[in-house]
Amino acid sequence: MIQKVLAFAQQHQLFTPDHQIIAAVSGGIDSVVLCDLLAELNLKFAIAHANFGLRGEESDADELFVKKLAKKYNVPVYTEHFNTKAFATQEKISTQMAARTLRYTWFENLRQQLSYDSIAVAHHQSDTVETILLNLTRGTGLPGLHGIAPKNGNIIRPLLCLRKDDIYDYVTSKQLIWREDSSNETTLYQRNKIRHEVIPVLKQLNPNLEQTVQQTAAKISAAEILVNEYVQRVREQVLRLENGITYLDIAGLPQSAALPLVLFELLQFYGFTFEVTQSIIVALEGESGKLFESATHTLAKDREQLVITAKNLQAFGSYEILPEQTELQVPDLQLSLKHLSAANYKINTGKKVAALDSGLLQFPLKIRTWKEGDWFVPLGMNGKKKISDFLIDEKVPVNLKDRVKVLTSGNSIVWVMGYRLDTRFKITDKTEQVLEMKMQ
């Protein structure tokens, strides 16, 4: 099976021997097989595990299992906790869609931060069948009918050449251990209902269902190439990017029956559905100021153009800082870091500078948006204080409070960034090494 995966990867140019890969690992059977195959192929990889906090102790046990798996393969492991339900409620989307949006956003941020080449996920042929059937029930375009692509941007899927039975055979032969997600058995979720109730019936009609669907998906992919070539020509004429904001020239859109499909193809990258696209078309002839939102972006009709801006998802996740890191550059924050000797170090008292005792820090450090219940011991005080009360004392405007970020070490807040250090991490006469952080 290793050779089958290698041949598939070479056919679709998924990776080369010197590629550095982030493996998305839940701890389930598919992702465990993905890890083992990457190790067997002697590829350099790290493990990324998203803890969505949806199954309580079971979610935490999954995370612990994945960390032990990383030790087995002697590879780095990165974990992230998300407030998935809060994000789903805010965006009025399903919990599963919220989890997908949060994890793929985090995977890409992590890939850029680590300068890795690709993100490997463990989809296989049975997932392709489920995805196509699910898309059909919801309504879909050409992309939804070709199922799951072997490669999509920085996302690669080396296991798409395998059936679920192949994966079971592999773990049996290798005697691999995995975690079983109890939610996979319930038919409350649409995908599970298709998996457990619909596909078995279809396989009675066609035992080779996976291969048949895969062949049909390949034909649809070829047709999609023709459509994409036309859409790309339109994209080059109507879209421009300035300072992280996308502008779409309405006058350059085709004035034909193809408009709904073309505009959908242009906007789906930003998370807009076909239904929303149809509403946007209605608004093209209307007054300026009409707003539309997806889970990740906001679109506004502004005179003769559409203006698309990205939402900030960091309120639901975080950035990591590694020991050797010297800078962090993300859309809403630029940070420089220096490791200095404490001897003759002169403290900068500016609010946008933090001078910390390196010996007291636990890496990786994390930067996240503050949340209710957070507390720290402000520099100059002896007792702890809730950050919500601290921001009131600092007279931070209500509409700016949700932009305030905190730097954490382990479970402790080190710095309310741009405002005050925690006195527990200040440098003293016992400090040997200083970590100096500057906000740009």
Automatic annotation (TrEMBL):
CDD domains on file: TilS_N (cd01992)
HAMAP family documented for this protein: tRNA_Ile_lys_synt
Alphabetized GO MF terms: ATP binding; tRNA(Ile)-lysidine synthase activity
Gene3D superfamilies: HUPs
Cellular component, GO annotation: cytoplasm
Biological role: Ligates lysine onto the cytidine present at position 34 of the AUA codon-specific tRNA(Ile) that contains the anticodon CAU, in an ATP-dependent manner. Cytidine is converted to lysidine, thus changing the amino acid specificity of the tRNA from methionine to isoleucine.
EC number: 6.3.4.19
Binding site for ATP: S26, G27, G28, I29, D30, S31
Domain comment (free text): The N-terminal region contains the highly conserved SGGXDS motif, predicted to be a P-loop motif involved in ATP binding.
Top EC class for this record: ligase
Primary subcellular site in the record, as a coarse category: cytoplasm
Domain (Lysidine-tRNA(Ile) synthetase C-terminal) ranges: 365-437
Name of this chain's protein: tRNA(Ile)-lysidine synthase
Protein's GO biological process: tRNA modification
PANTHER family, alphabetized: TRNA(ILE)-LYSIDINE SYNTHASE-RELATED
Pfam families: ATP_bind_3 (PF01171), TilS_C (PF11734)
Subcellular location: Cytoplasm
Catalytic activity: cytidine(34) in tRNA(Ile2) + L-lysine + ATP = lysidine(34) in tRNA(Ile2) + AMP + diphosphate + H(+)
UniProt cross-references to InterPro entries, sorted A to Z: Lysidine-tRNA-synth_C, Rossmann-like_a/b/a_fold, TilS/TtcA_N, tRNA_Ile_lys_synt, tRNA_Ile_lys_synt_N
Similarity section: Belongs to the tRNA(Ile)-lysidine synthase family.
Keyword annotations from UniProtKB, A to Z: ATP-binding, Cytoplasm, Ligase, Nucleotide-binding, tRNA processing
